[in-house]
């Protein structure tokens, strides 16, 4: 595994804590918002959580022990922050938006009609993913959307590799059933 020091140094010679935080925000900000969204299902709240993650990161940067990469460290902070928010009374009273706003933009190589079809399909699948139980949803998101390896997901979530594999399988099976039934999530 790449160490945090080599991960950071490979991006340039940054000498201050402020420069490091700016680099981390640029490098991982969007991914962290996407991950936070999978937990809280609300775009603005996900952005607020990630902002709080970077504030915590800034305050505790001196405690970073380089036992993992910055990416893994930030993901863990984000997940913990999301779990705290989900436990709060306020969270239970929020209105949720859809996950599709975080998907990659349609390709300009397609006609407008094709772009719209791809967007709608992506939006529908995203809704189905978000409707999965959190334990299945998080591994699906990390594996397919964040393109993490099973070992990375295992380390990040603090669960056995085989547990990650079984949750991936169950998540895919549930998604397949939803697609076959033509579930209209959120309608």
Automatic annotation (TrEMBL):
Family matches, as Pfam families: Sigma70_r2, Sigma70_r4_2
InterPro entries recorded: RNA_pol_sigma-70-like (IPR039425), RNA_pol_sigma-70_dom (IPR014284), RNA_pol_sigma70_r2 (IPR007627), RNA_pol_sigma70_r4_t2 (IPR013249), RNA_pol_sigma_r2 (IPR013325), RNA_pol_sigma_r3/r4-like (IPR013324), WH-like_DNA-bd_sf (IPR036388)
Cross-referenced SUPFAM superfamilies: Sigma2 domain of RNA polymerase sigma factors (SSF88946), Sigma3 and sigma4 domains of RNA polymerase sigma factors (SSF88659)
Domain annotation RNA polymerase sigma factor 70 region 4 type: ranges: 125-175
Keyword Transcription regulation in annotation: yes
Residue stretches making up the RNA polymerase sigma-70 region domain: 24-86
Top-rank lineage group of the source organism: Bacteria
Protein name: RNA polymerase sigma-70 factor (ECF subfamily)
Source species of the chain: Fictibacillus halophilus
């Amino acid at each position: 595994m790449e160490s945090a020091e080599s991960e950071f140094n490979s991006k340039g010679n940054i000498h201050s804590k402020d420069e490091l935080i700016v680099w981390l925000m640029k490098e991982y900000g969007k991914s962290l918002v996407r991950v936070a969204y999978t937990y809280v299902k609300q775009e603005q709240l996900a952005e607020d959580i990630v902002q709080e993650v970077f504030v915590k990161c800034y305050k505790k940067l001196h405690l970073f022990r380089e036992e993992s990469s910055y990416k893994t460290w930030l993901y863990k902070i984000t997940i913990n922050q999301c779990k705290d928010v989900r436990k709060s009374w306020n969270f239970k009273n929020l209105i949720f938006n859809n996950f599709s706003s975080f998907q990659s933009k349609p390709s300009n190589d397609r006609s407008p009609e094709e772009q719209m079809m791809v967007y709608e399909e992506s939006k529908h699948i995203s809704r189905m993913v978000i409707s999965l139980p959190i334990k299945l949803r998080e591994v699906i998101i990390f594996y397919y959307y964040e393109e993490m390896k099973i070992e990375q997901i295992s380390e990040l979530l603090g669960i056995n590799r085989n547990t990650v594999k079984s949750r991936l399988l169950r998540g895919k099976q549930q998604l397949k059933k939803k697609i076959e039934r033509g579930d209209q999530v959120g309608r």
